[in-house]
Task: inverse folding
């Protein structure tokens, strides 16, 4: 089945720890995105990547890092510098960055800091 | 920063009624417009895309776009309890080399039997 997978579904982190969220897609999409969603809030863009080995900061990149070594993978690391990381993290991908930018979402990872 | 505004709701309609969801955006050069449905605890699902002025119909859903007024709406006909969700409006900005979507905060819809 084609789609976007995220793992884990739930993640618990102690303060001071770095954690990495996985995002994989087998849709052959060029562009991939990471969003954060807090209760009652819209989606806020963390990082995005339009091609392999290139990525750009979104609106709230501080305390996060990403890599794009393969077209199908775009992992997000939440570092200890992120002061309030508890949130719902969503990965998305898009087949065409230049024209219409329809984005499709994975199931999400819910991160809780203990 | 681009602005995408939606009424947060909640919007409550009876089963079988028409639900009307509205969205305004600040940037006149925006090109593409999307509606996503998000059930509680789940990820957003793309339900409608619209790129030119006028109406676009898909089943019980109709998207309406008016670029001159910077306004996009979603109508849901014959609303069902299963339509109860938060609806997110998104606008594509290709003002820079690398395009991105801007999302509104969403409108929560409840359809009661």
Result:
């Amino acid at each position: 089945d084609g789609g976007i997978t995220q793992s884990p579904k739930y993640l618990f982190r102690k303060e001071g720890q770095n954690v990495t969220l996985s995002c994989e897609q087998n849709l052959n999409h060029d562009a991939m995105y990471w969003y954060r969603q807090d209760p009652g809030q819209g989606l806020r863009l963390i990082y995005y990547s339009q091609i392999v080995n290139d990525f750009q900061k979104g609106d709230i990149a501080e305390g996060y890092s990403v890599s794009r070594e393969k077209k199908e993978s775009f992992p997000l690391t939440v570092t200890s510098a992120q002061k309030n990381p508890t949130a719902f993290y969503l990965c998305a991908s898009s087949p065409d960055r230049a024209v219409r930018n329809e984005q499709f979402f994975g199931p999400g990872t819910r991160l809780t800091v203990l | 920063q681009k602005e995408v505004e939606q009424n947060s709701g909640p919007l409550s309609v009876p089963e079988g009624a028409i639900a009307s969801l509205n969205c305004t955006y600040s940037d006149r050069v925006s090109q593409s417009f999307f509606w996503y449905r998000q059930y509680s605890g789940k990820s957003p699902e793309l339900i409608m895309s619209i790129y030119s002025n006028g109406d676009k119909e898909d089943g019980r859903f109709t998207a309406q776009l008016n670029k001159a007024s910077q306004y996009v709406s979603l109508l849901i006909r014959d609303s069902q309890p299963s339509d109860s969700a938060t609806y997110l409006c998104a606008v594509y900005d290709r003002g820079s080399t690398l395009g991105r979507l801007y999302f509104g905060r969403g409108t929560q819809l409840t359809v009661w039997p």
In short: The mean pLDDT of chain B is 91. The interface with chain A takes residues 1, 31-32, 34, 36, 42-46, 49, 51, 88, 90, 92, 94, 98-101, 103-106 of chain B (CB under 8 Å).
